[in-house]
């Protein structure tokens, strides 16, 4: 059973008895994904209405400073969240299982390190509006295999001028509307988990974006379906929005499997491995993966 315990102007949805972590600013221990999805949050009373305090929530989950100015508060990156010893051990065991699964000649693996903040799954449903793909078992940010495959296919299709037949050979063929004609590709990407050798490795960070052209994007007063007639301008008030990301420097192990009929020939198998490795290197260096790639996010390099 839970109750809503009032502390001044702040409502705390807490288990009974009250959680001792409710008012701390250091990162709350535990599974970050569950803490976020189950909304381990603070609610504030604003004009008689309970509203989610996103800034305070991020500070509690990921450890940040709160900056206050003119009555507005924003979350500033300070400390990065790490894993406890049990979580590190479980993640290491997961890597060992995945390595056995892709043992040669069935597949290959590459290690990439984030050179900028990485945000995969920002558009997913989240209590904080801006989401992040967090593994439901290990509580770490990861890159789904489907995201890797989709990004790799987009790279070779839109940027490399690869022939359609070669694209279908590598990544498969989409089925028709009636479900017929689909085909599996030569490569199957597995989820890319981060490499976390110890409890000191940083796996999360809090970041801030500050859009400041709100009046330009607003549609109030403009005809339906059109933009505001106000031009974008740098004198408009910024709107700081805190979100969670994987920090630069975090390494991910990217594994993939090669279909049986495509690995019968040693020469063909080696050529396919070289092609996939180069596609991943070029994709993650030039295009990036995840959200905000136009702003430089999601870039990775071989490690």
What can you tell me about this protein's structure?
There is one protein chain. With 303 residues, the protein is an alpha+beta fold. It has 2 domains: 2-79 and 205-242, no CATH class; 85-200 and 246-302, Alpha-Beta Plaits (2-Layer Sandwich), CATH 3.30.70. The chain has helices at residues 32-37, 54-62, 85-101, 145-158, 164-171, 214-217, 266-287; strands at residues 2-7, 10-15, 43-46, 49-52, 64-69, 72-77, 107-114, 187-189, 193-195, 205-209, 241-245, 251-258, 300-302. The strands form 4 sheets. Strands 7, 8, 9, 12 and 13 form a 5-stranded antiparallel beta sheet that branches. A hairpin with a 2-residue loop joins strand 1 (2-7) and strand 2. Helix 4 (145-158) crosses helix 7. The protein starts with a strand and ends with a strand. Mean pLDDT is 78; it is low at 1-12 and 16-25.
Given the structure, what is the number of helices? 7
Secondary structure tally: strands? 13
**Average pLDDT over all residues:** 78
Largest sheet: 5 strands, antiparallel
As a percent range, the share of helical residues equals: 25-40%
**CATH structural fold name of the largest domain:** Alpha-Beta Plaits
Gyration radius, in Å: 23 Å
- The tally of domains stands at 2
**String of helices and strands:** EEHEEHEEHEHHEEEHEEHE
Strand proportion = 15-25%
CA distance, first residue to last residue: 48 Å
CATH architecture title of the largest domain: 2-Layer Sandwich
Poorly predicted parts? 1-12, 16-25
Which shape, going by the Cα principal axes? Answer: globular
Helix vs. strand class: alpha+beta
CATH class (first level) name of the largest domain: Alpha Beta
């Amino acid at each position: 059973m839970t109750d809503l315990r009032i502390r001044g102007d702040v409502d705390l949805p807490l288990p009974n008895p009250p959680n001792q972590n409710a008012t701390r600013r250091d990162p709350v221990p535990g599974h970050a994904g569950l803490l976020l999805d189950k909304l381990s949050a603070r609610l504030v009373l604003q004009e008689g209405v309970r509203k989610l305090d996103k800034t305070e929530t991020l500070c509690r989950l990921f450890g940040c400073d709160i900056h206050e100015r003119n009555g507005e508060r924003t979350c500033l990156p300070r400390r990065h969240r790490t894993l406890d010893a049990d979580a590190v051990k479980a993640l290491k065991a997961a890597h060992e299982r995945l390595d056995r699964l892709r043992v040669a000649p069935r597949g290959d693996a590459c290690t990439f390190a984030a050179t900028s903040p990485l945000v995969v799954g920002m558009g997913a449903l989240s209590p904080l509006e801006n989401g992040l793909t967090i593994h439901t078992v290990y509580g770490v940010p990861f890159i789904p295999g489907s995201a890797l495959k989709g990004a790799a296919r987009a790279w070779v299709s839109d940027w490399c001028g690869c022939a359609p037949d070669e694209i279908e050979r590598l990544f498969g063929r989409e089925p028709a509307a009636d479900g017929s004609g689909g085909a599996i590709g030569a490569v199957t990407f597995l989820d890319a988990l981060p490499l976390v050798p110890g409890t000191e490795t940083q796996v999360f960070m809090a970041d801030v974006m500050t859009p400041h052209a709100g009046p330009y994007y607003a549609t109030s007063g403009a005809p339906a379906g059109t933009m505001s007639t106000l031009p974008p301008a740098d004198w408009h008030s910024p709107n700081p929005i805190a979100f969670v990301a994987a920090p630069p420097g975090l390494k991910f192990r990217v594994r993939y499997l090669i279909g049986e009929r495509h690995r019968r020939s040693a020469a063909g198998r080696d050529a396919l491995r070289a092609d996939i490795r180069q596609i991943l290197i070029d994709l993650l260096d030039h295009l990036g993966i995840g959200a905000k790639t136009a702003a430089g996010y999601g870039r990775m390099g071989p490690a």
